[in-house]
Amino acid sequence: MSTPYAKLPAWADYGLIPVINLAVAFIVAGFVVMLVGENPFRAAVILVEGAFGKGTGIAFTLFYATTFIFTGLSVAVAAHCSLFNIGTEGQAYIGGLGIALVCLSFDSVLPWWVIFPIAIVAAAAFGALWGLIPAYLQAKRGSHIVITTIMFNFIAASVMVYLLVGPLKPAGSQAPQTRNFLAGAELPKLNWIIELFGAKIRSAPLNICFLLALVMAFLVWLLIWRTRLGYEMRTYGHSPKAARYAGISETRIIITAMMISGALAGMMALNPVMGDQHNVAIDFVSGAGYVGIAVALMGRLHPVGIVLAAILFGMLYQGGAELAFEMPAISRDMIVIIQGLVILFAGALEHMFRPYIQALFASVSPKSVGMQAVKGTGA
Amino acid sequence: MAQAAIELIGINKSFGAVRANRDINLEVARGTIHGIVGENGAGKSTLMSILYGFYQADSGEIRVGGKPVSINTSNDAIALGIGMVHQHFMLVDNFTVLENVILGAENDVLLKSSIAKARSELDRLEREYGLEVDPDAIIEELPVGLQQRVEILKALYRGAEILILDEPTGVLTPAEADHLFRILKQLKDQGKTIVLITHKLREIMAITDTVSVMRQGTMVATRVTKETTVGELAELMVGRRVLLRVEKGQSEAGAVKLSVKNLTVKDSRGVTMVDNVSFDVRGGEIVGIAGVAGNGQSELLEAISGIRHAVSGEVMLEGKPIDLTGKADPGELRDRGLAHVPEDRHHVGLVLAFEENENSILGYHDDERYLKGPFLDVDAIMADAKDKIEKYDIRPGNPRLKTANFSGGNQQKIVLAREMEQDPGVLIVGQPTRGVDVGAIEFIHKRLIAMRDQGKAVLVVSVELDEIRSLSDRILVMFAGRVVGERGPDATEGELGLLMAGVEHQEAAE
């Protein structure tokens, strides 16, 4: 017989379980901190204060979160179509190329509010293009998307290295990066929002891309749950056979989903490139694409969850940097271990505590798990 | 009564909030065949899984041969002499019979002595119980009936004294089933104890000594088979009297709505699954296709509905040809009035992870009624879903509930409601009541007949002979990809059974 579904109420599913997973991750991380001879409670305080304690910290946290929202959404859109897009890293990198071309061409003649929309389109288009090729190979040739997107990450990296030490590098420069953009290609900061709440900010890269990320999160929600295309993507994602039965073209849906995923990945580059560094440098993505996988999984492929998970990872990045600075025994690598634990408990071991929580809910209140009590038991 | 081989006392098992088994008491006497019947989801398989160590009971006691035991894994069960033949065989397809039999019981690195020992032991078992199988045959080359025999041999090889069979005849022809029953009787005569799980009451009557009926997780009755009737058991199963045969009037066949000519379909391996099949379905009639599963019926349905490409042939829908070369799109055929209830509702007809309302538009999701531009018209979809829930008595009546949480019968009603409410000219239905409980079967049959009476052409494929005979105005029998015979609704089961088994139809007609 089929395994009966015991469904948890939404708040427990999306709230309680992630919180428990997170708590366990931090407890285990606490033991690791103890192991290197530091006080885990003080470490936790430093981490949280570093991320949220001061205005600058908050701004940095949200800046990192912005990046992760884009990559998390990118992974999630593909995942809803049961495509595991590992290529977010490369698609974001190539998205940066699109931005560079726009900014280097127009930054001396156009204001930011004209360049920004053009750059968005360019970033999305370049990212989508980098997603299109693996999608085509999957749809038409059956080449597995996981393999091809990983390979495309390497190709993207090689292409960018070539461009950044060659054609895109200003003559005479020693650094493998484009020239710095002029003011026309610099995005406005959002620090004033945090200052509204009375916090002080020295210098932080939080910029208008954060708002763009939130808008995209909403649009992704709309796409997945409220459009015909999203319906078709989810149908294919759950059951390719059902999609075939429903007359949904496999080729079209795979290519469309991967292009949207690639476009979101490409848009991630706007945040560091136009919002912070004002140039395109080698390896500016620095693993954000892979973090996006964790963010998407932890956010349970839902935009709201992804925004929250992205902020959590932003906190780990920012607070972790502070921690490494304050506690010399805790190196940068230790922070990576803590992040790894969060991914482990929130992503990979996501179902570890679920059965116990379900049993608990079932014994306390059967109705809450969406099951009718069997007649006559009085349960 | 003879000494009990198995006693289950006060067994309880819950999955989350679902109480699959409640206070089950069961006693099976040594050397008897004991049947357990019940609707899908009544808890039969759960109970046997507890006995075989797949699940642990939340409370209760198991006694084997009078001694209380604890069975935590299937190895414990095997050690206690309990063997199980699963509904879906647990065989390695590309291994030989011998290799499958020793799998998990190998004792040496090079297998040499294991194989030698197994060969002589198999030989003995085959002689003793009439279970002839070539020990060196590759499993995937054996017919299902023989594969099942290998499963039984596997259990006996491990020293099973108690044999549990879960829906053993689901995949067998009537003749194969008869053979199985002879084997089971022989095993019983040798002193083995057999527990037979099924929902086919006829089998219970034919072979068991005693029978227990389960309903909604409880054991509602145990009867001596000779002293009960099919009617009583059916009533106990569903808790009310059901119509085993639907009432229907004469069909008034009209114009040909679906015409299939010389259709040939190959599967992905290039094997011809449908071989030069021709037939017509007229408006106002139900044509039933009988046959043992795997004789090309599935591929036939898929080709007609545009899911699978055909190699050659011609299909006319309402007088206009369907493109069979691969350009036929199921969506386009739907627009032309062909509705399809697929055999596999779990993977094809429904997306189980979707909410009920989302499934109620699957395939029709590009219909203007459900859309506002590129967006889904959620209000319209919900209203439509509620309407269908009411019309088809889908329970629980909550369109926001995940489809996986509906019972098999209600899931099937979701598919039927979706396809029938489109008012199609032609309805093709695969396994209309597979895995559906008795109450819903009656409802579904009535709906299909109502479609017929409205002048629609209905094509039904089913492996349940009873269903085909009770629904159809004409019966086609498929064997090895070909239509081997056409009969009227009054054809006897024996006659159809012979056709299904591939015996030449001249013989069958006698």
Briefly characterize the structure.
The complex is a heterodimer of chains A (379) and B (510). Chain A is an all-alpha fold and 379 residues long. Chain A has 16 helices and no strands.
Account of the protein in words:
Chain B: Belongs to the ABC transporter superfamily. Chain B: Residues 6-241, 258-505 form the ABC transporter domain. Chain B: This is ABC transporter ATP-binding protein. Chain B: Pfam families: ABC_tran. The complex is a heterodimer of chains A (379) and B (510). Chain A is an all-alpha fold and 379 residues long. In chain A, 70% of the residues lie in helices and 0% in strands. Chain A is built from 16 helices and no strands. Chain A has helices at 10-35, 40-53, 55-80, 88-106, 112-141, 145-165, 191-196, 209-226, 228-238, 240-245, 250-268, 270-277, 288-298, 303-326, 332-348, 354-364. Chain B contains 18 helices and 22 strands. Chain B has a six-stranded mixed beta sheet, sandwiched between helices. In chain B, strands 16-19-20-13-21-22 form a six-stranded mixed beta sheet, sandwiched between helices. In chain B, strands 2-1-4-5 form a four-stranded antiparallel beta sheet, covered by helices on one side. Chain B starts with a strand and ends with a helix. The A-B interface holds A 1-7, 222, 226-229, 231-232, 234-235, 238-239, 241-242, 244-249, 358-359, 362, 366, 369-375, 377, 379 and B 14-20, 22, 40-41, 43-46, 216-217, 305-307, 329-332, 334, 340, 342, 344, 347-354, 358, 362-363, 365-366, 371, 374-376, 378, 396, 401-402, 404-405.
